Amino acid sequence: MTRLSVLDLAPISQGEDAGTALARTRELAIHAEALGYQRYWLAEHHNMPGIASAATAIVIADIARATRTIRVGAGGIMLPNHAPLVVAEQFGTLASLFPGRIDLGLGRAPGTDQATAQALRRHLSGDAYQFPDDVVELMHYFDALQPGQKVRAIPGAGLDVPVWILGSSLFGAQLAAMLGLPYAFASHFAPAQMMDAIRVYRDRFQPSRHLAKPHVMLGLNVFAADDDATARYLMSSRQQAFVALRYGRPGPLPPPVDDYEAGLGPAERALLDGLAPGTVCGGPETVRAGIDAFIARTGADEIMVTAQIFDQAARLRSFEITAQEHAALAA
Is residue 303 in a domain? Predict the structure, then answer.
């Protein structure tokens, strides 16, 4: 059975602050654990008025402390923003505090705009080969200490911290296959190369001591409600936020509106149409059919559900319906 997990951006809704967003993230994680979700990941983004998970490792610690069994991790840490040793120490600390529950997903994008990337002290002149080298260096810090090793991650050395490669293009698929690591594709916001990336990863996968066979996790927007119309209404918050971001106007998550798409021009409609392969929206039966079709089309080993929904009660209900309908597929 395809596993089901959660990707949460800790959305800050209009009229609320980051503290409220993080409290709601904590509530959703507890809810997801009770519903049987496999893992709960948070993503590193910076200078985003609508996202509260910039200090990702700190939020992961809060979520892991509030839960008991669900795996908690990063989807992902944007490695170009950090020294590999610092990331190894952070996640070594998390793994020491919460043994057997911490995941580390790594991405090569900055997770922000160029000016903010410079403020993060990111070296913008680096070439595409630096990310693979940084991944290998980081993973080395999790190995058992070697005699004479001068630079060590403490905590970190000798700990089992599963590393994932994230991607929205073929680059990450190739790297994950070469290193024999699990692969997570960002099909929830960039599904255009999803099928090609899956094929490349599976065809080129080289078994490693970390993973014997390919493991593909795919992001999927799921907006679930008691009926199709309500689900489409809830999804309009995400649609508004996505269009605003693409036009350089990021902001807090807006409240839903009726018939949002009706007032859009061709360019905005095309942006939203591009999300369709990575989106399921509707009542219970529609969601079940949509998840079933997505699994059949992709052969995903795991689906990472995300849902930027303005109202917290509706968001909790959406993840509940999603879990129920996913379970029904295996019944």
Answer: yes
